[in-house]
Amino acid sequence: MPDLPTKVLDGVTIHCSNMENLEATLAKYRESTLSIVCKSDDLIGVDRLIMDNPIETLYVLIDEKDEDIKEWQNSFVFANIIEVHNEKQLMLRLCMKAMIYHYNQGLEHRRRKNNGLANLCFLDSLNALNYSNKFY
To answer: What is the largest CA-CA distance in the chain?
Structure first.
C-alpha cells in the first residue's frame, strides 16, 4: 500500500512493493515485533508468510465488494487480525501502534537509566500521537 501517508512513522514502517520484498523484509527483521498491513485482496499471497513468520498483528483493509475474499478471510485462522474499512481507520491504528511502541521503548531506556534515549523515544511517541489527530 504505497500511498499510505506513513512518512511521519518512518522509524517503524517499511513499505514492501511485492511479496518477494515483503518476504525479504520479514527475514531481515525476524527478531522484531512485526505487523503486516494489506488490502483484503492481497491476503491470499500473505497467508503463507504469516504462517512462516512471527507476525504479531495483521491489519486488513477490507474491500466490501469482494465476497470471495470475505469468505476466504472468514475461514483464515490467525490470532490477531484487525479489520479496517478505510485508510483513516488504518492510519489511526498504525499511529497508535507506533505511539505505544515508542513509549514502551522509552520506558525501557528509562529503566536502564538512559534518560537521553528515553526522552527521544517519548518524543517520538508524542509525535505519533499528534499525527494520529489527522485521522479522527
So the answer is: 53
Contacts of 106 (CB under 8 A, 6+ apart): 117, 118, 119, 120, 121, 122, 125
Distance CA 58, CA 44 (A): 13
* 31-54 per-position pLDDT tens digit: 888 888 888 777 777 877 887 888
Which residues touch 49 (CB under 8 Å, ≥6 apart)? 19, 22, 23, 26, 36, 55
> C-alpha cell of 34?
512485526
The angle, 0 to 180 degrees and rounded to 10, between the axes of the packed helices 67-75 and 43-52 is: 20
Domain boundaries, the chain: 7-135
CA 55 – CA 96 distance, rounded (Å) = 18
pTM comes to 0.83
CA distance 66 to 79: 23
Nearest of 5, 41, 40, 2 to residue 21 by alpha carbon: 2
Q: Is the pLDDT of residue 134 over 80?
A: yes
